[in-house]
Amino acid sequence: MPRFTYTRPDTLSETLRLLADPGHNSRLLAGGTDLLIRLRHDAPNFDRVIDISRLPELKIIEQAGDEVRVGSGVTYTEMINSPLLQRLTPFLIQAARQVGGPQIRNQGTIGGNIVNAAGGADMLPPLVCLDATLHLVSARGERAIALPDFILHPQRTHIRRDEVLSHLTFPTPPPGVRSIFIKLGRQRTSAISRLIVAAMGGLDASGRIDFIRFAPGAVTPRVQRFEEVENLLLGEFPTPERFARAGEEASRVMQALAGDRWSSPYKTPVLQTLTIRALTQIFPT
Amino acid sequence: MQINFTLNNTPIVIDAPPDISLLTLLREHLGVTGVKDGCDVGECGACSILLDGMLVNSCQLLAPQADGRNILTIEGVHDESGGPTDLQRHFIEQGAVQCGFCIPGMILAGEALLAENPNPDREAIAEALAGNLCRCTGYIQIVDAIEATARERQARSGQGGRS
Amino acid sequence: MIPPRHDTRYVGKPAARVDALEKVLGEARFLADINLPDMLYARALRSHLPHARIKRLDVSPALEVPGVKAVITSDDFVDHGNYGFPVKDNYMLAYQKVRYVGDAIAAVAAETPEAALAGVRAIICELEPLPLVTDVERALDKDAPQVGPDRDDGQSPNFLDRSIVQAGDIEKGMADADIIVEGVFSTPHQEHAYLETEGALAIPTPEGGVMLYCSNQSPFINRDNVAMVLGLAPELVRSIQPPVGGSFGGKDDLNYESSAQCAALALKTGRPVRMTFSREESMVASYKRNAMKMWVQVGVRADGVLQACRFRGLLDSGAYASESSFTGWRASIHAMGAYRYDAVDVEVTSVYTNNAFSGAFRGFGNPEVNFAIEQVIDELAEKLDMDPMDLRLQNALRLGDALPHGQKLEESVSLTACLEEARNQSDWDRKRREFPQRNAGSELKKGIGVAALFHGLSLGAEGADYAGATIRIDDDNGVTLTSGFTDYGQGSRTVFTLIAAEVLGVRPDRIDMLRPDTDTAIESGPTVASRATVLGGNATRIAAANLKRILDLAAADLLGCRVGQLIREGESYIGPDETPVSWDDVVAHARKLGFQLSAQGRWQAPTIHWDHHAGRGEPYFAYHFAAQVAEVTVDMGTGQTRVDDIWAVHDLGRVIFPQGAYGQVYGGIAQGLGYALTERVDFVDGYIQQTNFERYLIPNAADMPRIHITLLEDPLSVGPFGAKNVAEPAMVPTAAAIANAVAHATGRRIRRLPISLEQVLLGYDLTPPGTPKRAQQGLWL
């Protein structure tokens, strides 16, 4: 007896209809890397899989007005190959490039990363910097939710059972804004899997910082912009001293939000260092 | 359920449970044993196949996801007489083969890379292999083999030299 | 770079691996690829507790599960399936108690893998937890929980073995030293992580025996074990090795158990039975490289002459003895490093714990001790204000020296050449001088470090060291070779083929090497200890020479001349009248003359003696010498180490199969790299925390440094064509070279592997909370 059935709708509206069907507990399949792994450990709490990995509506990458839309079904490889994203959001490309291995990049999707990996997702810090809004659709209608509000806590999100994450949008970054994504490499600490810093920044004509977004990843229970760090930098000249202060502030905010953990002796100084490096890269001093 | 796809240029119609992985479908239901099970969690790449030309881990796909698609496994990689292709020949000559378990995946990863980037440098080759683990060879001769193949193909197509 | 040779046609020339074609075409059939009609799938029930008494074991519910055909326990084996060498303390299925998480308790055979798992889950197994011991020092306390078998010699119950090396007057040696350095070092367990997991296939035979396909390294040991535990005459058991997806020492013990379990199930059901492990089952249940804790003290004179070395090692054998007596012995022999001393005092003690048991892994005790001694040598150099390369060159063993153990080194000692070559190629002197200057004021710090090694060839005084090979000419004039040695990727089949081709004077592609098979091969001991090339190569050489004798006689007869007048041109024979005759013609003539076109060859290693009680003697009949230099960039902002280059200079006597030799060095360095930087095995209360590749990180292609290999050929007179070995030594010094480079870059001396980010950044490791959950889950996957 198969544990579940499989269906692959041709359109998003058909998908929503299937999801709304009360006769089934359905599970969406986008990139698949999460579903197959979970199935090894736990009996499925669904009886039907709905394959949305080939839905054309979820594959869009486009700029509409002053906003960029990225479909949830876009794979890491598709992101990396997108001229639009290369131009507008290089740090998203950097993040996608550092997802391990071509196979995972070919299969994994940005939507899957957000919905499934939740708190640990590599994509979250840059998307939070971009002020991304998630667009969820269901047979009942559509709703939009800001990304930081979407993540309940690691592994849980606000998505409802009959909803599909259709796409995300974010305002087009102002021209001249640079972005950076830094991740601790493969040589791991003892089970600290990653430490991420994502940042965006731009200078005004006088050389002061007039645009700054800063979000670390894997240091706090929820991914969020560190506004205290941003406020420290906004309106100021980019100097090593200011970056050092920003680094200290980042660590302080992390401590305040995450408390004292076994990993703190490592993360505290390293977050400081990576903050300084990120800022140094986006603001030529 | 019925799954229709092309496997190594051959049309396949098969009845299989929907809740098995594509790896299981290939190995257990179709006897395609060149695709290996090394970890079953998408980390080692021994189960790699080309799905519509894209390198993916078959252990991380459900069998029905093959429907309507073009799948290439190592069994489909050979010249017209069933002998080795240029890439396979270079693998042999460069000493890139030891135990051989990772090799089907490595060859497919090599082909996928060269299809997209016919002139890769060694760093690009190593990055393209980052999802295929090998415990025997240390990878250097595998990179050598792919590099030699790229050079030879460039020379054959009349575009000598490397960028 | 190998110096060009003109004295051979095939040996030492680029060659294709004999089995490479089937592997690149995907046609090689590994164990899990063999599917037979009527075949049943087997699965073991494994302990989820690290130490427990089996209070109740009822397998009858498993037999009620649809599809299950048979279930076995230790009752189904002779003497409860007791096995093990040199200590017979293990069981094919646990008897009375389980000693580690993953210990096999029962095995089920069923129509499908799912039914087999369901059968395993249905077994009623009540385990009564026993107190644990997981720390090696605690394990030696007289009141520690007893893991090992009862002892009546007054030793603590968890004491397994002790190996010593003693020479000279250690007190005087230390007293004569002007500078003494000491340190405590530790190396962790290491997981073999072969891409193909364990498994076995058993096919019952009409005469009541069993045919086994098993990916282990020693088919004769497998055959003898299975025959013993099933109460069968050895002739009724046949063990064949299919293509193996990597082993590195790791596919013995647990595979002997799988073979025995499958064999018992096959005999019970009358059907073929196959067992293959999931990756998690492999990582949880399979044996590892032993963890070691080491205390090292070395004294040196102000003029740089090493005086004395004191070494204490504690080896975690885990739940069973496996090879630990031998690993501990080899560790003790190599603990002081490849140097001259006036006095040494070495003691390596192996103990039982409730961690997963430890067994053979490439290097077999040498990588562990090398990590310690090579760093102490560097620390001495620092205190002497001497270049570490110079200190090594001053004290390195040379031709004619005596090992501190008492053995005189009569030939093939090229350590100083290896060191000098590595020094020149790596631009050592300039970098040692310039890096510290460059590093000042930068977060990215560069360093360069060296490690030297010696590695005894073959079993040494561990055991009887012999090998046999057979060769014959078939009806189609192809040549068939057999050997008791196995090839699990390291290339032994190709090495033997090239040797036979060279001796016989025929093209290698004429030669077919049969799979190792106890029916057709001559027992040659285990394929371990880098002994295949010398032992198996010599046996092959002799077999080929014996066959050539016959062909030479036939050729001389055909050409009407004396054997001494024959010349070879390609495969052809030419006599005084200069008309060539083809090899095929000679073979046909030999048949006509009534010759048997087959021969055997046997070779015994030179006799050596080791006095286990005195700790002196001749440990090995030959040694491999080498040096590796590592250049690193350490990011002091994150603690990450990137290895940029490794220069590896190895004296392997004579290269037989060049691509194979390079491959062994590249592959060994990759394993050493992982051992040094990324491979963590953590046991928390006996539960392994890493159960698949997402947590156990082995190097991938992008992690690899540039590797520059130089193979020196200082021939060994008893080696085939002068060859020694290379497989194991390749990974021995890598971690130490990297650690020494990190110390040069950062000033931080890292005495624990792996060289974690925290150790570099903070000076200590952080301890994450561990969980039993992952390991327990892994047993059901």
Account of the protein in words:
The complex is a heterotrimer of chains A (285), B (163) and C (781). With 285 residues, chain A is α+β, with helices and mostly antiparallel strands. Chain A folds into 3 domains: 47 residues; 116 residues, Uridine Diphospho-n-acetylenolpyruvylglucosamine Reductase, domain 3 (2-Layer Sandwich), CATH 3.30.465.10; 105 residues, Enolase-like, domain 1 (2-Layer Sandwich). Chain A is 37% helix and 24% strand. Chain A contains 12 helices and 13 strands. The longest helix of chain A has 19 residues. Chain B is α+β, with helices and mostly antiparallel strands. Chain B folds into 2 domains: 75 residues, Ubiquitin-like (UB roll) (Roll); 71 residues, Orthogonal Bundle (DNA polymerase, domain 1), CATH 1.10.150. Chain B is 33% helix and 14% strand. Chain B contains 5 helices and 5 strands. In chain B, a hairpin with a 2-residue loop joins strand 1 and strand 2. Chain B is globular, with a radius of gyration of 16 Å. Chain C has 781 residues and is an alpha+beta fold. Chain C has 3 domains: 147 residues, 2-Layer Sandwich (Aldehyde Oxidoreductase, domain 4), CATH 3.30.365.10; 167 residues, Alpha-Beta Complex (Aldehyde Oxidoreductase, domain 3); 335 residues, Aldehyde Oxidoreductase, domain 4, CATH 3.30.365.10. In chain C, the strands form 9 sheets. Chain C has a 7-stranded mixed beta sheet with strand order 3-7-1-14-11-12-13, sandwiched between helices. In chain C, a hairpin with a 2-residue loop joins strand 30 and strand 31. In chain C, helix 6 packs across helix 7, helix 15 packs across helix 16 and helix 17 crosses helix 18. Chain C is globular, with a radius of gyration of 27 Å. The mean pLDDT of chain C is 95. Chains in contact: A-B, A-C, B-C. The interface between B and C is large, with 53 and 58 residues.
